[in-house]
Write the structure tokens for this entry.
Amino acid sequence: MTAACLAVTRLYNQFRLQNVRARLLLVAIIILLAPAQSEAVQYREVEWTELMPKEDLAALLDPPDFLNGIEDGSQQDSVSALNQREITDQKAKRYREALSSTQPIAEFDQQAIRIPGYIVPLAQNEERRVTSFFIVPYFGACLHMPPPPPNQILFVNFSDGIELQHLQQPFWFEGKLEIEISERDIGTSAYTLHIDNYQLYE
């Protein structure tokens, strides 16, 4: 075999070896990436009432009769007025306690959830994107009686901010839920949601 043929043979063998190594590297990368893809976060879709004890829900679904006589927007139409009211009826007492309940559901701590809701802005950035807010189950929740109790309010800090066109705009939120009390002038929440994704509710 001539020197030229030997040189060509060596080059071919080197190329084939490099090709084999490249294929092995590609297979290794695929193997490494496969677990990451299979471990993609699965968000549990949650109903708001799942976040509160059944006893609280039962009390809120059976309000005291005197609430029917309170005019919307009046001085008596507030939680503070209800708390100042002298109440002897046990049903009314239990209703008042449920309205201020911070009792969470322990199984949801550190869980990845998906939940719909409305934004109650607390802070915004220079671009007027909402960066700190409450998520509530219905529009006007913190403005009208009865408001949702703390275990029906999620607190969010989101540095990227969300562009909010109007308060009546509902969203889907996905993220990790944490049991944590957050108090603001407008209300108190029993949970914090660390947002991963959000989108308009459709």
